[in-house]
Amino acid sequence: MSDQNTGRPAAHPDHPSAPDHGYPPVRETPSGSGYGYPPAQAASPSPGHGYPPASGHGYPPARTAPPGVAYPGPAYARDTYAHDTYAHDAYAHDDQHVHPPRVFAELHEGLHPEEAPGAAEKAEETGAAPGKPGRDRYFDLLRAIALFRVVLYHLTGWAWLPLVFPSMGVMFALAGTLMARSLKRPAVQVVRSRIRRLVPPLWLLGAIGVTGMVAQGWGPDADGHPGWWWAHLLFWVLPLSDPPFAEQLPGVHGFLDSSWPSELGGPLWYIRAYLWYVLLSPLILRALRRFPWPTLLAPLALAVVMSRELVTTPERIDSAITDFATFGACWVLGMAHQEGILKRLPAYVVPSLAPVFAGAGLWWATHEGFRTGFDLDSIPLAQALWSFGCVLLLLHYSPSWTEWPDRLKNWDSTVTLLNSRAVTVYLWHNVCILAAAGLYDRLWSVDWLGAHVPWLLESWVPVLLLAWALIALCVLAFGWAEDLAAKRRPRLWPNGAVRGRPKAPAPGDGPAPHPNGTMFTRG
């Protein structure tokens, strides 16, 4: 676990008056994934796919062809596209218009932002609330906010940010929801798919990061025994425990300081925790269905045990168990939401209980000395209780948007991009913050700026903007690994924008254009 203070550490080495930008090691991110085109044709209801009874696959009735126009293909070919994030579901757009096979094939060739994944995963997840088809844009919005909050927190270190929005609890809850939805398919198949989608971005990070660390002098002697160093490197392949990384290395002058390996390795705890949740999810779901409330509260009980140090374990195991306990209740809560367990409660129960859990977490945080530099990330039990209470309210509210509300439609491309590249953003954002701070601090060498606008050089806002610019470059350079993990054709900037439109069909070769002049619309 990475629990660090934040602040502005030592002055810039070349300019003593220049404060350095500080940020704590990463403790958070996103999670769940799913690609999956809905099946291309209606089928009889099947419990193996989790679609509502007597509704085929949950699609609305097909539109009838205008008088005198013959649709050459069946009405089930729909304008739908899949979208993956680190823990994410399938988009479903254009709920009103249908297209023949020719147009649907064109959509697969690139007219839509995502390619269809393998047939075995076409119905894996849609991210919608129980019983509703399509992508839940409310969940997408929560995930995007969580990512932005993570970046802001790791730049500024403001202790109150995790209280305003508990990003990690939200991300694990959304992943749990999608995992429960996926487990309508065979468990081995789902777990294998999840692992396949998890590790390629990690491999890419490791290939670059480990190579850089070795080039700067990190090697077998760093772990106390060469054999352990080589063995621990395997965790970069399958992160059952934290992959190893150096603590301090020379860095790159004016760009990355000596802490860059720690910043690179900071987010890896999340990959490890997520992997264990995935591996144990079939058992957790089975227990949840049989013993709902004991299963839901068991991680919180484990968090109490670990907090009181009632069990002594080696550091690697202690870290893994503590992280599992801290956010495990949120993961199980997401599964309970998907299973409809929360919906069966009287309407007043969740709004009554959630503040009790959140309040208990806040009380424990103050009891343990909550302050800047010693916030919820440093107090796992408080983090667990606060996150559980807040996520409980967010899932209770859960409006399940299949389309954006009008006031949020302008954010569609931004939210879509963040969801599409959540893993890349999370894995690389800490290094981007470090690089942005190093680059911005070089402006202190301009005497006029230091004399006339020192407030600008001390501001965190330009560093945040520069960090996001560097994150965007990482999305362009490394985001393709998420597409390969999803068995999709790599895309540079998957923000949901339609890259082109189908050519007008020859007479008798396709549907008539929609009255607005387009072949299809986006949701």
What is the averaged pLDDT score? 78
Listing every helix as H and every strand as E from the N terminus to the C terminus, the arrangement reads EEHHHHHHHHHHHHHHHHHH
User: Tell me, what's the shape?
Assistant: globular
What count of helical segments does DSSP give?
Answer: 18
Q: Count every beta strand, where a strand is a DSSP E run of 2 or more residues.
A: 2
Given the helix and strand composition, which structural class is it?
A: mainly alpha
How do the strands of the widest beta sheet line up side by side? 1-2
**Distance from first to last alpha carbon:** 40 Å
Estimate the strand proportion. Answer: under 5%
Please state the oligomeric state of the protein chains shown: single chain
In brief:
The chain has about 525 residues and is mainly alpha-helical. About 50% of the residues lie in helices and about 0% in strands. Helix 4 packs across helix 10.
Textual characterization of the structure:
With 523 residues, the chain is mainly alpha-helical. It has 18 helices and 2 strands. The protein has helices at 101-111, 137-156, 161-164, 167-182, 187-215, 226-232, 260-265, 268-290, 292-307, 315-339, 349-367, 380-397, 412-420, 422-441, 447-452, 454-458, 461-478, 480-485, and strands at residues 11-12, 15-19. The protein has a two-stranded antiparallel sheet with strand order 1-2. Strand 1 (11-12) and strand 2 form a beta hairpin. The longest helix is centred in the middle third of the chain and has 29 residues, at 187-215. 46% of the residues are buried.
